[in-house]
Amino acid sequence: MRAQARWPLVFWFGLLGAVAVADQARESTLQAYVVVLAKDGITPVTNLTPSDFGVRVDGQSVRIRSVSAGPQPVSAVVLFDASASVGLQPARDKERIEAFESSFSVHLRETDRVRVGTFAGDIWLSPKLTGARADLAGQVRLAYSSLPAESRYGPSPLWDSIGKAIDALQADRGRHFVIAVTDGRSTGNVHSRSEIIRKAVTFDTALCFIVAPVIPDTGIPQAALESGGLWLSSHTPQPTIGLALGRILEAMHGTYLLTFEPQANLGDDHRIEIAVRGQPTVSYRRAYSSGAISAEEKKIQNLEIRRP
Amino acid sequence: MWIPALAAVSLFQPAELVGQQPFRTKVSIVAIYATVQDRQGGLVTDLAQSDFEVLDDGKPVELTLFRNEAVPITAVLLFDTSGSVTEQSNRLFSATSEFIGALWPSDRLRIGSFADEVSLSPLLTNDKRVLLRILNEVVWPGFTTALWQGLDSAITSLAGEQGRRVVIALTDGYYSPSNGGIPPLPGGAPRVKKRAAEDSDLMVYTIWSRQDSRDHGLSPDMVELSQLTGGGHLILPHDADLRLAMVQLANELRHQYVLGFSPARMDGKQHKLEVRLLRPGMTPRSRTSYLAVEKQP
């Protein structure tokens, strides 16, 4: 009862409009990954118990069946914006490659699986998911060297790249997320930001961003919020891309997995609200769908990108 | 100089173009897209074949093709988003939404931009919702002006399209090289002009709105490029109604005459072209040359 009484206070973080679709359509229970960060906005809170959580679906409280604390195995794609607007000096590429190797790779756990990619006029993803650090070191170098030089003076299709990354994770297990290291300028996309956010929610893939320098009105905070991801910028206390990569990976490892029972006859699209007692930063996907994947979502899933 | 046409808004009737295929030139026919204006700058749209005379290297030719019907638009709208023109670009973005709104079902548009990067949308589409979304994506200002790289890419992006193809450049046309960024286009401005001059189905239009009284206006290179292709250039005062100009541009593109003739020989050389009107008080505008080579079907 006490927890119920505190709901209005706990829901200070609000909800954006949500759309979604999804996975556990025909099951009687639903799952949601939840990242909880301490007041510093960085440190994952990992000592919570089921009684600390509250879940609402379409505004109605639902029963939580289980709460599984981390570490969760993760499947991730790390994308680097390699277009001219982020800088074309070899030193800049090297900085990002070394950041990945020194701060991301070292935080990987045995069960984690990762692909890396770059995007500019072309989108390049490493051919397979791997957890082998030695392989990943080679792949991130290959990601930069595989982009044709002229492609780097082309557009920055951030949202198409993320769409492709979501596809690349489909067949894999674990907590799915994409990290994009970008300046936030997004051009030359076939698919809109809202289509890709919907796709991320549909396929339960958290979208995370490391944005430097910060450019307003990119839609990045919205994408992170609705998909259950995170975004870090130069305003966040993280001095380097490497540290930011490591912090996001650690946060995803620290994810809680909640299983809960929605009411019957829910219909198609539903909004989820998750509150955690006393914790200001809670990240989770904001919606799900109990319906089958529609033709429109199949269209989004089958991204086909032809560039002029 | 292209003067905005004064045709009535009622000309925008999409029904007559529904289902119509773009005009396709036959291999051995040289197509000329001609705009005719009266003394007041208004579009003249009711001329007959007998009103025209075409000269190939100074010699009259027999017209084997004449069309005087609305022509679908297949175009790239190319924005200069370099830092020096940001203020005007924002006004042009707003005006472009009017242009998109005036599209007919048979029209197709690609939106692109150039500054530090050249960014062309992969989509050549009639979907107004998609076009408006893309328009909102190209607002990022840059520092350099990759003008010739942008124009070259825009022309290339339309290369596979049949019939008349149009590049509408919203720029002052002044190139500024990048220090350590995007490399210069090999051949630069002469290369783009040569490509445009040799492609008889390509037209380049340039629109620029002065930022203030000190604005140097449109670059001579862009004026020449527009004239070579039979397109037009428009320099507007800083407080001009850009939305009206964009809608009028759409109107002009729709109401061009298509004149065609079969050259006596395809000698591989550049030929001078001249379109004359046999009626007084009217001025034709069309490309000034063509390359006498067989087109690939």
Please, could you describe this protein's structure?
The complex is a heterodimer of chains A (308) and B (297). By secondary structure, chain A is α/β, with parallel strands linked by helices. Chain A is 28% helix and 25% strand. In chain A, α5 (158-169) runs parallel beside α6. With 297 residues, chain B is of the alpha/beta class. Chain B has two domains: 22-70 and 255-291, Immunoglobulin-like (Sandwich); 74-254, von Willebrand factor, type A domain (Rossmann fold, 3-Layer(aba) Sandwich). In chain B, the strands form three sheets. Chain B has a six-stranded mixed β-sheet with strand order 7-6-5-8-9-10, sandwiched between helices. In chain B, α1 (86-101) packs antiparallel against α2 and α1 packs across α6. The longest helix of chain B is centred in the N-terminal third of the chain and has 16 residues, at 86-101. Chain B starts with 29 loop residues before the first strand and ends in a 6-residue tail after the last strand.
The largest β sheet of chain B comes out as: 6 strands, mixed
Overall CATH class of the largest domain in chain B: Alpha Beta
Structural class of chain B: alpha/beta
User: Cα-atom Rg of chain A, whole angstroms?
Assistant: 19 Å
Radius of gyration of chain B: 18 Å
Q: Using DSSP, what is the number of strands of chain A?
A: 14
Termini gap of chain A: 60 Å
Strand order of the largest sheet of chain A: 7-6-5-8-9-10
Estimate what percentage of residues of chain A fall within beta strands: 25-35%
User: Could you give the order of the helices and strands of chain B?
Assistant: EEEEEHEEHHEHEHEHEEEE
How many individual domains of chain A? 2
> What's the tally of helices of chain A?
9
Produce the secondary structure layout.
The complex is a heterodimer of chains A (308) and B (297).
Chain A: H1 2-5, H2 7-10, E1 30-37, E2 53-57, E3 60-61, E4 63-68, E5 74-81, H3 90-104, E6 113-119, E7 123-125, H4 133-145, H5 158-169, E8 175-182, H6 193-202, E9 205-211, H7 220-227, E10 231-233, H8 241-253, E11 256-261, E12 269-276, E13 281-283, E14 287-289, H9 295-301
Parallel strand pairs in A: 5-6, 5-8, 8-9, 9-10
Antiparallel strand pairs in A: 1-11, 1-13, 2-3, 2-12, 4-11, 6-7, 12-14
Chain B: E1 30-38, E2 52-56, E3 59-61, E4 65-67, E5 74-80, H1 86-101, E6 108-114, E7 118-120, H2 128-137, H3 147-157, E8 165-170, H4 188-198, E9 202-209, H5 220-228, E10 232-236, H6 242-254, E11 257-261, E12 270-277, E13 282-285, E14 289-291
Parallel strand pairs in B: 5-6, 5-8, 8-9, 9-10
Antiparallel strand pairs in B: 1-11, 1-13, 2-3, 2-12, 4-11, 6-7, 12-14
Helix pairs in contact in B: 1-2, 1-6, 3-4, 4-5
